[in-house]
């Protein structure tokens, strides 16, 4: 009897793993394709989003694209308004209490790590200075992953992709506590603060930061993996042109 119970439980676990790793990916892929199509149609029609509406867009509607060149030149996901369960089935979502793309402060996104499209499955493979690019209707905004070390000298070495002023702030200044990647608890809302890890409000003297959040470890939501990157460049979009940064690997 006990043996039959264990067999049944094993079958159920296998079915659940199949559902999470395969079927939810299929469904999320369909929803992501729809979101990408709607986003491109809106851009092609000349629609432009006022930066002030980034926090008030229609829940689940796409407004930008996320590119991570380290994952391949064609890797991209449409980014949606909101982080509720339904929205995250379609792809990464924007914490709407945070800033918009390229703005001073923290533009923070959430995404799944296993199943449901798994856009953030490989966040653990990113290294300091890897590029993360946000595409909007009119701009390409490039962020660089911040140093992983807490040591000031190592942080200086890992900041070669930043401007001299940014490298100083990151090595020994007000951003010296912000790691490029770390693990924290689900209740740590400070990671999406305007200056992560502080209670400071939004001000124009803040750097533009991009934060990516996902569950950790895989198949668990006990903790959160956090990646922080700093804005280094903004390039206007022109028809038929893609920035060279997308070819990095």
Automatic annotation (TrEMBL):
Signal sequence bounds: none
Keywords on record: Hydrolase
Gene Ontology molecular function: hydrolase activity
Keyword Hydrolase: yes
Highest taxon listed in the record's lineage: Bacteria
Active site per the UniProt annotation: 112, 215
UniProt-listed Pfam families: Sortase
Coiled coil (UniProt feature): none
Protein name: Class E sortase
């Amino acid at each position: 009897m006990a043996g039959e119970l264990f067999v049944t439980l094993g079958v159920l676990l296998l079915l659940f793993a199949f559902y999470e790793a395969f079927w939810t990916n299929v469904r999320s892929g369909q929803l992501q394709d729809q979101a990408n199509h709607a986003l491109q149609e809106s851009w092609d029609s000349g629609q432009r989003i006022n930066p002030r509406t980034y926090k008030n867009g229609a829940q689940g509607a796409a407004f930008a694209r996320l590119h991570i060149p380290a994952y391949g030149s064609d890797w991209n996901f449409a980014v949606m308004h909101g982080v509720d369960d339904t929205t995250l089935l379609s792809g990464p979502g924007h914490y709407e209490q945070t800033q918009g793309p390229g703005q001073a402060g923290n533009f923070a996104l959430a995404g799944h790590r296993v199943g449901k499209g798994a856009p953030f499955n490989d966040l653990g493979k990113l290294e300091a200075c890897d590029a993360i690019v946000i595409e909007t209707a009119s701009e390409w905004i490039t962020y660089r992953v911040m140093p992983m070390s807490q040591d000031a000298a190592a942080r200086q070495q890992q900041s070669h992709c930043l401007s001299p002023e940014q490298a100083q702030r990151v090595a020994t200044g007000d951003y010296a506590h912000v790691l490029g990647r770390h693990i924290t608890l689900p209740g740590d809302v400070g990671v999406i603060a305007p200056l992560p890890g502080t209670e400071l409000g939004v001000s124009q003297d803040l750097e533009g930061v991009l934060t990516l959040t996902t569950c950790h470890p895989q198949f668990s939501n006990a903790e959160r993996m956090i990646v922080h990157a700093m804005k280094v460049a903004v390039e206007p979009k022109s028809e038929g042109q893609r920035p060279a940064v997308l070819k990095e690997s």
